[in-house]
Amino acid sequence: SVEAVGNFAVAPDGRTVAAEVWGDRSGLSDIWLYDIQTGIPTRLTFDTGNERSPQWSPDGETLYYLSEESGASEIMALEPESRTEPRVVFSMPGILGLTDVSPDNRVLSLTATDSTSGANQAYLVPVDGSGAPVVVDASAEQAMNGQFTPDGRWIAYALVDQGAFRIYLKTNPPTSRKWQLTDVEAFWYGWSPAGDRLYFQGGASELYMAEVDLSGNTPRSGQTSVLIEEFPNPVTNLHDFAVSSDGQTFFVSDAGSTDDTRPLRMIRSWTRLVDAGADSR
Prior knowledge:
Elements: E1 2-10, E2 16-23, E3 29-35, E4 41-43, E5 51-56, E6 63-67, E7 74-78, E8 87-91, E9 95-101, E10 107-113, E11 120-126, E12 134-135, E13 143-148, E14 154-161, E15 164-171, E16 179-180, E17 188-191, E18 197-201, E19 207-213, E20 220-228, E21 241-243, E22 250-252, E23 265-267, H1 270-280
């Protein structure tokens, strides 16, 4: 039986969600696939270690995920529609999660604990194993949850700034320059399909929206506003949310309650929630 749904990824065609599912008996997580239209779940992994942090390739044919079989930290690649076995793409001690795949399917974004400093850092890793991992922001106290912009020109990440996480942006590949995108606490976030809006959430229930212009050589931040006041709040580290490829649906994996049942939810009517909130003010 299912205890909780943690990190997840929506397939590019919007029909399937891959999620890490924690079992209440085993205490371990496996990757499951959920058909959005029917709600039918299919278990995808059966190993004796944790399988977590699924991310789809841009074409939707390959699913990458983190395997902790036998205490190792390995990024695996699996084609759900084929009969081939999962293969190891990258191995590194201390990987905490796989966070994104670049739009050209050449680079993976992950978070890992630095073996020397003990700090959590965002890394970029070539999918084909042709190079060493690149630290997104070596000067950061902590940098996590790296995600590519829809055009692939930039890499965003959550950086500890004055005691709280905020979202920053660097070029892809990263250089020493960085730009701050949010001026309030933010850790969980997702891009609109056009890359002109950043939806984000900190430690409370408000879901924010920030306007962003990434068309030039320098990113420009616009107005930030509260999009939804009563969004499911992050009560556990299993919290996650994502935006559908058409920008019409939010997915969230935390019910916002204090029990151990955290289902995966779809918020399809979020535009009506926004309109209702605007009418009440």
